[in-house]
Amino acid sequence: MLSIVGLHYNPKYWDKPHAFRPERFLGEYNRDAFFPFAAGPRACMGRRFSEIEALTLLANLVLNYKFSGTKLHTSETPEQVAARVLGWRMGPITLHPAKASFTFIKRES
Ligand code: HEM
């Protein structure tokens, strides 16, 4: 049995595995070490559905709202802001942001 969490946070395959760096997927990465929907005959049946649903959700948010991130406090360095905003903690099933504050502003239609 393969541990998906163990694989996805393994420093042998991922540089700084706990850092939130989505751009790591823009270039070359080890596709054999990325296994969120499992593989083979018992792989996730909902994969395409959930990928399209996630894209649709993000596209609708960007279409309808402007995002304003956490303001830089004068005493904080950009690295401290990144650590505060991108910090994570373990939820019941997945990891999730510890304290990512955003303001959503509805776009004029
Ligand atoms: C981000 C969303 C999702 C992730 C990360 C995910 C991940 C997975 C994984 C890892 C498995 C294999 C579990 C195992 O080996 O025991 C699985 C199985 C499965 N998933 Fe998903 N899933 C997601 C969404 C969905 C959705 C939306 C549906 C249905 C609409 C779905 C339906 C299924 C089914 C039916 C199986 C069992 C396949 C089988 O055993 O033949 N999943 N999923």
UniProtKB/TrEMBL annotation:
Gene3D superfamilies on file: Cytochrome P450 (1.10.630.10)
Keyword Membrane found: no
Cofactor(s) in the UniProt record: heme
Entries under Pfam families matching the protein: p450 (PF00067)
Sorted UniProt keywords: Heme, Iron, Metal-binding, Monooxygenase, Oxidoreductase
Residues the entry annotates as binding heme: C44
Pathway linked to the protein: Secondary metabolite biosynthesis
SUPFAM superfamilies: Cytochrome P450
GO MF terms held by the record: heme binding; iron ion binding; monooxygenase activity; oxidoreductase activity, acting on paired donors, with incorporation or reduction of molecular oxygen
Family, similarity comment: Belongs to the cytochrome P450 family.
Protein name per UniProt: Cytochrome P450
Species name: Serendipita indica (strain DSM 11827) (Root endophyte fungus)
